Amino acid sequence: MSNNKEKNQKYDRAGLENVMKRRFFVVPSFMIYNGVAGLYDFGPTGCALKNNIESFWREHFILEENLLEISGTCITPEIVLKTSGHVDKFTDYAVKDIKTGQCFRADKLIKEWIEKEKKKKKLTEEKVKELDKLLIKIDNFVEKEIDEVIEKNKIRSPDTGNELSKSYKFNLMFETHIGPTSGCRGFLRPETAQGHFVNFKHLLDFNNNRIPFGSASIGLGFRNEIAPRSGLLRVREFTMAEIEYFVDPLKKEHEKFHLLKDLKLPLWSAKNQLNGKSVEYDISLKEAVEKKIIDNETLGYFLGKTYLFLIEIGIRKEGIRFRQHTPKEMAHYASDCWDAEIETSYGWVEVAGHADRTCFDLSHHTEISGVELVASRPLKEAKVIKGIKIIPNKSIIFKKFSDKEKCKTLCEKLTNLKDDEKENLMIEYEKNGKIEIEIEENGEKMILEKEKNEIKMERFEQNIIEEKYYPNVIEPSFGIGRIVYCVMEHCFKVREKDSRRTYFDFPPVIAPYKASILPLVENEKFLELIEPIRKVLVQNGITYRIDKVDSIGRRYARTDEIGIPFGITIDDITLKDNTITLREIDTMKQIRLPINEVGIVIKNCCNRIEKWEDIIKRYPLLEEEKNQKRKK
Questions:
Q1: CB neighbour list of residue 142: distance below 8 Å, 6 or more residues apart
Q2: Predicted TM-score (pTM) of this structure
Q3: Could you tell me the strand order of the sheet in which 590-594 lies?
């Protein structure tokens, strides 16, 4: 990782943040009340940019991959997140200033200390290597290792210089209670994924019981970050775009993998990280899958799709890498995981995770809920299975026992028994003519008798031609807010001949507004032409801004500053022949074309049907047109 001085030469954070606030891209929430850390509001321009990135994500993934889009609730009952492991394992390590009580995220604090240490003069090469090695390994540390690093290096609170407490786990979920009696504990969801898993049966049925298929959603997630800093890169409420791609664990090939197999991605494998080696750039996806650097084709395919997505929305190729999680860092549910990381003024930032979640979620939700979240595959040959069927007579049971909740618990327990438990009960049933079922942790039992017809147990044999299995899940998960910020850093530019003039060279597909309408001067004749131009833009679905105040140069500067790719100018010639000039933001070259053609030209550029280079071949550049007139 490069130091901050080097980063700031490539990415102008100070200049960008000035524009972001001044032009209302993004601002801290509740500013009139001094704000709350980790919460941000998007203004008109920022909101439009974010929406356009989400729309392109939908096109690139949902539309192209024929995914099933769903939308789930933000409030999630505790049982769901207990089953998924989030209640117990969704934690970060925190430390406190022992005098002020201020909290810090332990790994981030150590990383910041490492960066400061590396800036010191006269560091030996051995010391630099030691710090780099520590930087790579810090994400894998547990409490004891974190405490040892802090104590050994005498790391203190960055704000006061006070000593720090021992590290401890902090759960990152926002807790709430559902309903007025507080009887149902819940959380604001930390991810959208669980909504896909609990609805798996509906999704499978909608897809005609065919595997593989994918579902997707874009929605809010919440994480109660310990000490949120770094602007949009670490927030407490954020938009996520997630895909859950369900596959047969025996068939993790992808039918479209051949389209991307030769694509070369910048891969930083776990092995290279632990051995102190750098990113590899010359490995194709096909080679990476064959060598098991990437676990399977489906995971590799989505890594390739993400790489292309990031480039299309304006991220520089040299500022992208894919980092594999090391074994200690791997999530509790994953067998392989790769983060798409983007280089920024803050260093390398994770913007999308790609995990093979195996069957963890579906199998755990099946076990706890009692509802089978499985798919089936045909057998090569039919086979006979043997089992025991238990049929409780609910009408008799509910009359016999007065406590209806205990009756319900009893019936559910009988339904969800495992095969070995059924066998033991059957032996007891046949021997004694009754069975005893424990329904409470205190040992309370309920007795069901054969002669009273309270329960029926029978053995069965069944020919089956298919077998059930838990699908595995490949999950690409994107942080939209982080992507928005990274796009802004990568697209933020300064004019070569005027350092005060900044602009964003957003790809037109994601630009907040696609065009500006600029009358050369503010007089009635020019203003009358705004409406026909506006109508042409609207008919072609082109968003626009109208700016009539100040000189044309200042107005170009204003529209450049918010990344409007095309400027439409109404001038004296427009009054004569209904043509306008069209200016492109990056090259500042202008062409002249009829009003009734400008909408389709901009639309084609925004839809990536044509590039500006193609457009200027069809229409004369303004300077060329002037020269031709002079010759005449």
A1: 93
A2: 0.87
A3: 544-546, 515-519, 566-570, 579-584, 590-594
* Helix or strand run (H / E) with residue 259: helix 257-260
* pLDDT tens, position by position, 251-308: 999 999 999 999 999 999 999 998 889 999 999 999 999 999 999 999 999 999 999 9
Rounded Cα distance between 612 and 601, Å, is 9
Check if the beta carbon of residue 478 is closer than 8 Å to that of residue 192: no
Please report, in angstroms and rounded to a whole number, the separation of the first and last CA atoms in the chain: 59
- Give the C-alpha separation, 397 to 408, whole Å: 10
Q: In this structure, are residues 373 and 197 in contact, taking their beta carbons and an 8 Å threshold?
A: yes
Give the 3-state secondary structure of residue 594.
Answer: strand
CA distance 14 to 40: 18
Torsion angle defined by CA atoms of residues 91, 149, 108 and 80, in that order, rounded to the nearest 10 degrees: -10
Nearest Cα neighbor of 511 from 9, 102, 25 is: 25
- Residue 529 sits at the vertex; the CA angle it makes with 526 and 530, to the nearest 5 degrees, is 100
Give 495's DSSP letter.
E
The CA distances from residue 529 to 110, 412, 519, 567, 594, in Å, are 60, 73, 8, 15, 12
Helix (H) or strand (E) holding 53: helix 44-57
Per-residue pLDDT tens for 573-616? Answer: 999 999 999 999 999 999 999 999 999 999 999 999 999 999 99
Q: What mean pLDDT comes out for the span 35-40?
A: 95
Query: Could you tell me the two tokens for 87?
Result: 């209640």
**φ and ψ at 65, to 5 degrees?**
-100, 5
